[in-house]
Specification:
With about 450 residues, this protein is mostly helical. The protein folds into three domains: about 90 residues, Fumarase/aspartase (N-terminal domain) (Fumarase C, Chain B, domain 1, Orthogonal Bundle), CATH 1.10.275; about 250 residues, Up-down Bundle (Fumarase C, Chain A, domain 2), CATH 1.20.200; about 60 residues, Ribonucleotide Reductase Protein R1, domain 1 (Orthogonal Bundle), CATH 1.10.40.30. Helix content is about 60%, strand content about 5%. It has 19 helices and six strands. The strands form three sheets. It has a two-stranded antiparallel sheet with strand order 1-2. A two-stranded parallel sheet has the order 3-4. The chain is elongated.
Length: about 450
């Protein structure tokens, strides 16, 4: 007979039982469930709701169950549906009738709400550590390449000169925002729902704030109906995870392009590459491609959660059991991706010469040539037109802007003088961009220092 079976005269159909059982995936909540139960039992004893000796016996029994689960000495059963029923059954088997007192002043509704908050809280902290590790790997690359000139792109066309360090720092900023989003999620989920009961709290003289403090929460949920029906924190986490995957996917897309023979900007370490079953020359960036591919999976988890909650009436509904697999999968996927991404970028080889060669082509100093003229007093739009004509002439002649003779420059605009060649040299173009957030080495060093302070 089920622990909830008093109302029922016969057993649940086996197919129906297996369909609604969640122990296959919510077993990973065992630690949170036991820690929450220990805090609850301790509170029941302190408040005189059960005898202090009974509370001590329950706590001792729960600690023993935790140790046995972690030692692999206990087997969960689908007959007990979920992690909560499994642990309560283990407890009653060990300490007898006293174990049945644990659920006093509590419902599975507020119990699972607590377990999920604690789990998401713990995993959010771990995810922040993974994100920070990725930022550190990119920062190390930035430190090594503050003078490595490369083209930045718009529309996948070469645009303006930057450095490889500046590019890596752009990726760092994406991940820094991911860190702050995860931190924001942590702040909003920092409320303890235990004590909300099924949806209407309880008539017992419980101490919710004691339980919250025991479990490391800064506050308790303000409304018992909302406490058991809220899954915003799960959705918010998965939204943050979806953005992390967006960023990783964008980075990996560029790594895939850059490692191609057409670009040859970087070379993946063999530890993070694979070969072809038929083409012996191939060195494929499969890890980067897989990270890019797994992005859709996390998007699907987020969409599943949003759809599950859409139009769901208050308070708790069995639909909400569907939050777990989506949440667990999104967390696992992002952790797996970051675990591979961080050493992958940390071990890749940067082809400095190829980056410079790409920067030398494509007229990425054209804006600097226009700026040169404006500093000579030419209106920017007139300067823009003149440099456009210069580029057309370069294309026709098969040369770069720096290779045009001064006579040709003056033929297009008389304001050009010999000092233009120094002004439009790539190194000068980069070093002149000293505005805060720009690619000049002084600015890049400032960005690195800010990120290091952020991580510290």
């Amino acid at each position: 007979m089920k622990l909830w079976g008093g109302r029922f005269s016969h057993e649940t159909d086996k197919t129906a039982n297996d369909f609604q059982a969640s122990i296959g995936f919510d077993r990973r909540l065992y630690r949170e469930d036991i820690e929450g139960s220990i805090a609850h039992a301790t509170m029941l004893g302190r408040q005189g709701i059960i005898e202090p000796s009974e509370a001590e016996k329950i706590v001792e029994g729960l600690r023993g169950i935790l140790a046995d689960i972690e030692a692999g000495n206990l087997t969960f059963s689908s007959d007990n549906e979920d992690i909560h029923m499994n642990i309560e059954t283990f407890l009653t088997q060990r300490i007898g009738t006293t174990g049945k007192r644990l659920h006093t002043a509590r419902s599975r509704n507020d119990q699972v709400a607590l377990d999920m908050r604690m789990y998401v809280r713990r995993e959010s902290g771990t995810l922040i550590e993974y994100v920070d590790a990725a930022i550190r790997a990119l920062l190390e690359l930035a430190k090594e390449h503050t003078a490595t000139v490369m083209p930045a792109y718009t529309h996948l066309q070469r645009a303006q000169p930057v450095t490889f360090a500046h590019y890596m720092l752009a990726w760092c900023q994406m991940l820094r925002r991911d860190h702050t989003r995860l931190s924001d999620c942590l702040a909003r989920m920092d409320e303890c729902p235990l004590g909300a009961g099924a949806c209407a709290s309880t008539t017992y003289p419980i101490d919710r704030r004691f339980v919250a403090a025991e479990l490391g929460f800064s506050d308790v949920t303000a409304n018992s109906i909302d406490a058991v029906s809220d899954r915003d924190y799960v959705v918010e986490l998965c939204a943050a995870l979806a953005l992390i995957m967006t960023h990783l996917s964008r980075m990996c897309e560029e790594l895939v392009l850059w490692s191609s023979w057409e670009y040859r900007f970087i070379e993946m370490d063999e530890a993070y590459s694979t070969g072809s079953s038929i083409m012996p020359q191939k060195k494929n960036p499969d890890m980067a491609e897989l990270i890019r591919g797994k992005t859709g999976r996390v998007y699907g988890d987020l969409m599943g959660l949003l759809t599950m909650l859409k139009a769901l009436p208050l308070a708790y509904n069995k639909d909400m059991q569907e939050d777990k697999e989506a949440c667990f999968d999104a967390i696992d996927t992002v952790k797996d991706c970051l675990t591979v991404f961080t050493p992958m970028v940390g071990t890749m080889r940067v082809n400095v010469g190829r980056l410079r060669a790409a920067a030398d082509e494509g007229f990425i100093n054209a804006t600097d040539a226009a700026d040169y003229l404006t500093k000579k007093g030419v209106a920017f739009r007139d300067a823009y037109t003149a440099v456009g004509k210069l580029v057309a002439a370069c294309v026709e002649m098969g040369v770069t802007l720096e290779e045009l003779p001064i006579e040709k420059l003056r033929e297009i605009h008389p304001a050009f003088e010999e000092d233009v060649y120094a002004a439009i040299g790539l190194d000068a173009c980069v070093s002149g961009r000293k505005a805060e957030g720009g690619p000049a080495e002084v600015s890049v060093r400032e960005q690195i220092e800010k990120l290091e302070r952020f991580l510290a």
